[in-house]
Amino acid sequence: MSSQSTGPLSGLRVFDLTRVLAGPTCVQMLGDLGADVIKIEKPGAGDDTRGFAPPFLPGTTESAYFVGVNRNKQSVTLDIATAEGQALALELIARCDILVENFKVGALAKYGLGYDQIKDRFPGLIYCSITGFGQTGPYARRPGYDSLIQAMGGVMSLTGEPEGMPQKVGIPVADLFAGLYATIGVLAALRHREHTGAGQFIDVGMLDTHVAWLANQGMNYLATGENPPRLGNQHPNIVPYQVFATADGHIVLSIGNDPTFTRFCENFGLAALLEDDRFRTNAARVANRQLVTDTLSPVLAQQTTSWWITQLEALSIGCGPINRLSEVFADPQVQARGMVVEVAHPSSPSGVAKVIANPIRLSATPAAYRLGPPTLGEHTGAVLSALLGMAPEAIASLRAKGVV
Q1: Which of the residues are catalytic?
Q2: Where are the domain boundaries for CATH 3.40.50.10540 in the chain?
Q3: Is pTM beyond 0.85 here?
Q4: How is domain 241-323 classified at the architecture level of CATH?
Q5: How many whole angstroms separate alpha carbon 30 and alpha carbon 116?
């Protein structure tokens, strides 16, 4: 694995003041695309997710959580609560193009690192701040957590069985979406800087991004003024588009339009339904959702999941099994697309760690895995020496004082 950057963001450097998930997701994407990343971590502690374990990377004390979102980063331990640490931070920022942080609103100003404090000194700097609620508004100073944002942002009211409790999504989607929207903002700001030479401030609030991806359900509310109900595994606008029990498990049946429903009925002994006004169009099926479900359920239950998948795929009707993660990573399509890669890791007995690959496929400048997830402070000496020209004795002195 080469540490030489060759991606579309090659030559750019990121000063990374993020931790946990939203910020690291953004910065890992930038790193995968070629940016050189300096991840700043508190001496002796580091990113909170280093302690989010078990599980650990096999044979190590490194948390799987941390390993999953911190490749292509150099770890530099630096105590920005000290005057010397702040001075070093500013020297490093002077050599960076992008700063990404996810501290609480106003927190970095205590250390002289707030945007308004440094923007005139670094006019070309792109400064991206990811917070729970953004920099303005009555909730701006509140802490933001994924489950809290899922609750406040509406998705929990839409997720779960109709008579059950509201449910959060099984992965931290509020964090992930905020990180990805932040990446888009950084890329747009880079394009602006190409034309003007000017940096800018990017304000990403997790609640904002959560509201943005309510998508069709958000629009359903705006169009009707009515709160969409929880529908379990059913689609609010398309029927049938849901989970059905089979003879030996479950299947997702996704019939997205009327011609596909006609094809389904004609091939599985249900042609009579096409003469019934309650089934003929998608709008009618949505209005008679329970009738459609009750009519199709005994039909799907007659055969096994594999039988249905074989038959439906031959007819180009959307369907799929409900895979556990063991089945996801064993899936031939997932394997053919190379969605698991090995990256170098100094703590692993094998010297490598398996991580989930970047899904963006660029034909000329693909994502690269130059650096494995770093151990705490692994690159402190190398970065301070290479970028700031510091001598080993000076770095040793800083270590002795706990600055790095």
Answers
A1: 175
A2: 13-213+357-401
A3: yes
A4: 2-Layer Sandwich (3.30)
A5: 24
- Nearest Cα neighbor of 108 from 201, 33, 36 is 201
DSSP 308-370: HHHHHHHTT-EEEE---HHHHHH-HHHHHTT-EEEEE-TTSTTSEEEEEPP----SSS-----
**13-213+357-401 has which fold?**
Rossmann fold (3.40.50)
The tens-digit pLDDT sequence of the chain (404 residues) is 345 667 899 999 999 999 999 999 999 999 999 999 999 999 999 999 999 999 999 989 999 999 999 999 999 999 999 999 999 999 999 999 999 999 999 999 999 999 999 999 999 999 999 999 999 999 999 999 999 999 999 999 999 999 999 999 999 999 999 999 999 999 999 999 999 999 999 999 999 999 999 999 999 999 999 999 999 999 999 999 999 999 999 999 999 999 999 999 999 999 999 999 999 999 999 999 999 999 999 999 999 999 999 999 999 999 999 999 999 999 999 999 999 999 999 889 999 999 999 999 999 999 999 999 999 999 999 999 999 999 999 999 999 999 99
